Amino acid sequence: MTFGTMVTDQELSRMAPIEQELARAFAAELGHASPAEMPVSANGAEAGIDLGLSDLGGMIRLDLEKLLDGRLLVQGTSGAGKSWTLRRILEQTHGLVQQIVIDPEGEFVSLAQHYDYPILDGSRLDSAALAIAAARAREHRLSALLDLSQIDREAQMQAVTAFVGALIAVPREHWHPVFVAIDEAHIFAPFGGAGLAATSVRQAATQTITDLMSRGRKRGLAGILATQRIARLAKSVSSEALNFLIGLNTLDIDIRRAAETIGWDASKAFDRLPILQPGDFVASGPAFSRAPATLRIGPVETRHIGARPDIVAPASISAKDAAGLLNLEDLHASSQADSEIRSETSLPVGIKTVRALIREPAFADAGRIWEVLAPLAPQGATVADLADYLSIDAARVASALALLDTYGAVDIDDVGDERAVRIAKGMIS
Length: 429
Known about the structure:
By secondary structure, the protein is α/β, with parallel strands linked by helices. The protein has helices at residues 9-13, 17-30, 42-47, 64-70, 82-93, 109-114, 127-140, 153-169, 199-214, 235-238, 252-262, 266-272, 319-326, 328-345, 349-358, 363-373, 383-390, 394-406; strands at residues 49-54, 59-62, 72-75, 98-103, 119-121, 144-147, 178-182, 221-227, 244-246, 280-284, 293-297, 381-382, 410-415, 418-423.
């Protein structure tokens, strides 16, 4: 189809849905056949995608079938370009293979919005619902994004265990090829079970990611994992990957582990890996057209959220106005209240009880009634007489007596039509 230039069916499939509709409408006006009506070439997927330019010249390509067979691990320190690389792969393979993106930081929501993927909100779906959604996504070959950015680490692990486990467990008739891209994979499969989550939760999540990388291949699942440090990722997971993209590394243990994965000797790795620029990676594995090879990952179309913000000067504002924006007075008051609560939690039970009694609104009246009743013990007085003697109304007397009765300090009896009160026997010395 010609729109001034040739647009293939694969190129159309990579466009956003609204762009596809416009392209088809334009083709119809010109009397051309729409690419959607043409048979999809199998050679496109076999040939792979352009990943980036080699430092020696030429494009490094990624073979999708070999990627499905051998999985992929993308590693580099913070800022090395891991998320950018995942985004590049997902953009270039959009329309060629089903994609499932597991996003712990909310960085790939823009990609899902651009390609009109459903976004599964981990804060609104429990484990059972996520498992059902995963099974349906495989059944209908639907690309989707699982956003886990609004839940804590333990809940993220539980969500991934349910979701990825269901991707693996679907019946054989639904074993189509799927790219399962997981950012910050060490969160879900930490080395040595490290982390704050419960041991059982960590073990279940790690086993699930291990199953994805091992049992997933024959089920059509290709794990594409990104991690900051190989040393933080469970060996049972990293050992299943045959393809690697290694970026900037600065720690000795990571450089040594990275050298082992890409077949470099330690001296070469220590010379090269610490000086790689953001976006530069060393490719190693059968899925790459040339390996090992150093390349710069190509551009992305969707908005990359992981980039650091530009430096912008702060607003010029007085200390008084700044304190008002921070609402410091309320913060001071709430901190004081929290401090009182914290101090009370460390007090002995008896002291806590006394402090609670003192804070009761009826405490003052209760004290005055106690002073009247103490000399009369073991006898007492009527409620009406107490009200007259203390010159307070009956409601206040009733509240004070209810408080004393709560702590077992008085006995209250009905005498004829009146109520009488006296100090409890256990309180008389």
